[in-house]
Design a protein that fits this description.
Blueprint lengths: L4 E7 L9 H13 L2 E5 L11 E3 L5 E5 L3 H20 L12 H19 L5 E5 L6 H7 L5 E5 L7 H4 L6 H8 L3 E4 L2 H12 L4 E3 L5 E3 L2 E7 L6 H5 L17 E6 L8 H14 L6 E6 L8 H21 L7 E4 L5 H10 L2 E4 L8 H8 L8 E5 L12 E3 L4 H13 L2 H17 L2 H14 L4 H6 L9 H6 L5
Parallel strand pairs: 1-2, 1-5, 2-4, 5-6, 6-7, 7-10, 11-12, 11-14, 12-13, 14-15, 15-16
Antiparallel strand pairs: 3-4, 8-9, 9-10
Bound molecules: GDP-alpha-D-glucose.
The site of GDP-alpha-D-glucose has 20 residues, from α11 and α12.
Length: 476
């Protein structure tokens, strides 16, 4: 039987209209393989053990329901109040509550039961992100022997930070049940290998793969990207100019889910600092789009309030009757408008304190006119900075540094802007989301299997190392 792809993620795409790169990238491969996507239904409900068909063809999307308690303990709790801050180096925000980890394990176990019923022996399973780390562990304990890949969209945690977990040793164990672990950057791979080096249960094979008990995991970076053509299509859509009333003389843009990891407070402070020292008579505008996110978590409520205060403060100090320096939009903006807004901007601010990749950086670059492009100001702590070395890289903890970059960007000669943009655009094109998905699946399809699996499967290499050496490529 030909194999199909089964994608599992916490959230399931419900429609196609506002698709990001991940959805578009997987859309084709799912449609071609007769595959399916399993994820949580956007509405809570009681789990009646059956998966509901949602969305429309060309591939099947099957949803499970989370109860209100699951949402609180598994999603907002362990996933977003423990793992998220821990992976983003915000140990101060890690919030251990009774029941969080138990719910996380229980939801993963339940999802594993559903997947085990769906998967045929040759199917490839691709699990996404920190909500589902123990899924392969649960699937293996149900006897599922398929190749299973995992992609972590957020930074791999530092070894020391893992000690903030109640059971830090679980992390290495959970991952070891995947055949392939995909990470965003070479830096993430280095942190992951550091974790295994410090673990007496792990051993490095000559190929660089990690052997953990009888299991072999290939660990590699696969920098995620965007659907370039799809995003640029937004440039041609719609008639209305977003600045019909008043087009700013210099526009700086920021687009982020409202999250404390995105460095928004220092970004706003830096724009304030720039205003203080800007060339006399200039009236730049900073447009920040920041749709709400995880509003039930206290840390998100705090940052929302602080941002309102700081933007009010700066506008209060500098605004004139016909000039509002900061336009802070705390709402979701239609995806098709984003490309045109990026295209109108002279600079984009990405100031993450920690970030797996940051797709906004790539979207901004993709939306520029190559003959007269804007300048990307990029935090050195965003995964995107590893390859986008020609962006203006900044230290997001240093307000003066960001303010200086704004000054440099707005004064940058065209020749330099064109050259820097070309170099960044090469990265955007090389990491296109469709290439990213194909590369991951190709590597997953060739990954060495576990040692016991090899002994049980006649006709396949039984050493468990030879194939690993020839196929596995480990980025350190
Ligand atoms: C995680 C990791 C990693 C933002 N505001 C609006 C809107 N957006 C879109 C952007 C972009 C996406 O949301 C945000 O992607 P990022 O990559 O910047 O950040 P996360 O949401 O934190 O994503 C991250 C990513 O996964 C992929 O692996 O890069 O590091 O944290 O596409 O354009 N879209 C619309 N309206 C908005 O107001 N339609």
């Amino acid at each position: 039987m030909p194999s199909k792809l089964i994608v599992v993620s916490n959230r399931i795409p419900m429609g196609d209209s506002s698709s990001g790169g991940l959805v578009v990238a997987l859309h084709d491969v799912l449609a071609r393989s007769g595959g399916l996507w399993v994820g949580a239904h956007p509405d809570t409900g009681s789990d009646d053990r059956t998966l509901e068909l949602v969305g429309s063809e060309p591939y099947r999307r099957l949803a499970f329901r989370l109860s209100e308690t699951d949402l609180k303990n598994y999603y907002l709790g362990f996933s977003n109040s423990v793992l998220w801050p821990l992976c983003h180096r915000r140990g101060d925000l890690v919030d251990h509550q009774p029941g969080f980890e138990e719910a996380y394990r229980a939801v993963n176990r339940r999802i594993a039961l559903r997947i085990a019923e769906l998967a045929d022996p040759e199917d490839l399973l691709w699990v996404h992100d920190y909500h589902l780390l123990p899924l392969a562990y649960e699937l293996r304990s149900l006897g599922v022997r398929n190749r299973i890949g995992f992609f972590l969209h957020i930074p791999f945690p530092a070894l020391g930070d893992l000690s903030m977990l109640a059971n830090p040793e679980n992390f290495a164990e959970w991952i070891s049940h995947y055949n392939l672990l995909g990470l965003q950057t070479r830096g993430d791979v280095a942190r992951c290998l550091e974790m295994y080096r410090a673990d007496p249960r792990a051993e490095f094979l000559p190929s660089g793969c990690v052997r953990f008990r009888d299991r072999i995991t290939t660990i590699r970076s696969f920098p995620i990207g965007i659907d370039v053509e799809g995003f640029r299509a937004g440039l041609l859509e719609g008639e209305d100019c977003p600045f019909a009333q008043e087009k700013p003389e210099a526009l700086i843009i920021g687009v982020d889910r409202l999250d404390y990891t995105k460095g928004l407070l220092n970004r706003f402070r830096a724009f304030g600092r720039y205003l203080e020292t800007r060339p006399e008579g200039t009236r730049p505008c900073f447009l920040q789009i920041a749709p709400p996110s995880r509003e039930k978590v206290q840390a998100y409520q705090d940052i929302t309030r602080e941002l309102e205060e700081i933007s009010g403060h700066i506008n209060g100090a500098y605004a004139e009757i016909d000039w509002t320096p900061i336009r802070y939009i705390h709402r979701n903006v239609e995806r098709k408008s984003l490309a045109r807004l990026h295209n109108m901007a002279q600079a984009c601010l990405v100031t993450s304190l920690a970030d797996g990749m940051n797709l906004v950086a790539k979207e901004f670059v993709a939306a520029q006119d190559p003959g007269d492009p804007g300048v990307l100001i990029l935090s050195r702590f965003a995964g995107a900075a590893e390859d986008m070395t020609e962006a203006l890289q900044v230290n997001p903890y240093d307000v003066e540094d960001i303010a200086a970059a704004i000054r440099q960007a707005l004064a940058m000669p065209k020749l330099e802007r064109v050259a820097r943009h070309r170099a960044c655009m090469d990265v955007v094109e090389d990491t296109e989301s469709s290439v990213w998905a194909k590369t991951f699946l190709k590597v997953l399809g060739k990954c060495p299997l576990s040692l016991t699996e090899k002994l049980l499967t006649p006709g396949k290499d039984s050493s468990g190392t030879e194939e690993a050496e020839s196929d596995a490529e480990v980025h350190r």
